[in-house]
From TrEMBL:
It comes from Drosophila guanche. Its main location: membrane. GO terms for cellular component: membrane. It is found in: Membrane. The keyword Ligase does not apply. GO terms for biological process: cell adhesion; tissue regeneration. This is Blast:Ninjurin-1.
Length: 137
């Protein structure tokens, strides 16, 4: 009988979930993922700048990484603004939805840039064309 009561309390607790709190947690989670992606891009930018013009796709990689970082920062700023908006006010809710659409677009484009740049290779384990000659027997 005690288990049923505990289960009922859990159901009532889930029904009373605050939508604003959920949206805030979701925004924070998106922000944390954005920070992780930004850190990875900063590391890749450091690598591509160290390799320099020797990399076959140096300019393309530099553009894609920079574009991705700019979009991630813009999305992060919008997420901070969005977290300050209360969804209980109808006027603020429509602004929040609009900001959310822009955040989604920036994150989508950022991930698209990341997918494109990974297809052109940033793996430090892959030798540069100059070093391939030294590896041959």
């Amino acid at each position: 009988m005690a288990q049923i009561v505990a289960g009922d309390e859990r159901v009532n607790e889930m029904k009373a979930m605050d939508a604003n709190r959920y949206a805030t947690k979701k925004t924070i989670a998106q922000g944390m993922l954005d920070i992780a992606l930004l850190t990875a891009n900063a590391s890749q930018l450091k690598y591509i700048l160290q390799v320099g013009e020797q990399h076959q796709f140096y300019k393309l990689m530099l553009i894609l990484i920079s574009l991705s970082i700019v979009m991630q920062v813009a999305a992060g700023v919008l997420l901070i603004i969005q977290s300050l908006i209360s969804i209980h006010n109808p006027k603020d809710r429509s602004i929040g939805f609009t900001i959310n659409y822009f955040v989604d677009a920036f994150i989508f484009l950022s991930v698209f840039c990341d997918v494109m740049k990974m297809n052109f290779g940033l793996d430090p384990a892959i030798p540069l064309l100059q070093n391939v000659e030294m590896l041959k027997p």
